[in-house]
Amino acid sequence: MAHDHAEQAHGNRRRLIAALAIVVVVLLIELLGAWLSGSLALLADAGHMAGDTIGLIVALIAGAIAARPATDRHTFGFRRVEVLGALANGALLTVVALTVAIEAVRRLLAPESGQVDGLPLLIVAGVGLLANLAAFLILRGGDRASLNLRGAYLEVLGDLIGSIAALAAGAVILSTGFVAADAIASLLIAVLIVPRAALLLRDVVRVLTESAPSGMDAEDIREHLLTTAGVVDVHDMHVWTITSGAPVFTAHVEVEPSVFELGETDGMLDRLGECLKGHFDVEHSTFQLEPAGHSAHEGESHR
């Protein structure tokens, strides 16, 4: 399990480094294009990509720290740092969306504030679209295994959509002279960023508040454990997530007296662990075996 996680973390770092290289190049191109064309859409997308650059760097640092082994002080290791990296990325996405939206509205209310040259906008947006598509494909797939990588993936997805919107704005301006298309495209970019940031932050909060993983029901787990031969009752259950793809489960399990009398505790622990691993994909589980009726001696917090 540790070896698989190390390989996955190494693969995620490679994805992030490749995506970062692409994003930095496109950022510089879009800044130049925004200066040449006067386009807010390009400047907004460049600002978004500047946020992405910071976000990707944060994701790389968080991933490197998360790969460090556990210590006596940090018994679960540093894997939750990935979640903090995702939190930073979600916050950056939100700030960028609000900044772009405010500037887009200002330009719509004051259309005379600047002219936009459609041709440079169209060319640079096209280059940005191809580059963002490449970065998107590099990160695709890894987002399901890591919240940290998901934050980077969502940021690049936002860039991809932004490039499409800027490309469309350039085409409209070049063909019709409707300059407001640039501000409208910018506003669209901002509107599309917000839901993705909200979803990412929701998943981060779910991990940090130690809520049950999405799609995992504690009562369902309890019912499965109760079907194990020799199990009488299950209580004081806790299921949470250390980081993406790393659910943890603990419980007090009351068993029949024969389990202790016949020395079958090892076999019982194996069966319980296999139940969690096979049915719920939980690799890290801890069970406290107790004789039937022991819960009557425990405090309310353990029931």
Provide the fold topology:
Elements: H1 2-37, H2 40-66, H3 81-109, H4 118-139, H5 147-176, H6 180-208, H7 218-226, E1 231-241, E2 247-255, H8 257-261, H9 265-280, E3 284-291
Parallel strand pairs: 2-3
Antiparallel strand pairs: 1-2
Sum up the overall morphology in one term.
elongated
What is the name of the CATH class of the largest domain? Mainly Alpha
Helix and strand element order? HHHHHHHEEHHE
The major beta sheet can be summarized as: 3 strands, mixed
| Percent of residues in beta strands | 5-15%
Cα(first) to Cα(last) distance is 31 Å
Question: Going by CATH, what is the homologous superfamily of the largest domain?
Answer: Cation efflux protein transmembrane domain
Helix share of residues? Answer: 55-70%
Class from helix and strand fractions: mainly alpha
CATH topology of the largest domain: Alpha-lytic protease prodomain-like
Radius of gyration: 26 Å
Please tell me the total number of domains.
2
- Number of E-type strands: 3
- Tell me, rounded to a whole number, the average pLDDT: 79
Strand arrangement, major sheet? 1-2-3
pLDDT < 50 stretches:
none
Q: What is the tally of helical segments?
A: 9
Features:
mainly alpha, 9 helices, 9% strand, 303 residues, three-stranded mixed beta sheet, 3 strands, single chain, Alpha-Beta Plaits, Alpha-lytic protease prodomain-like
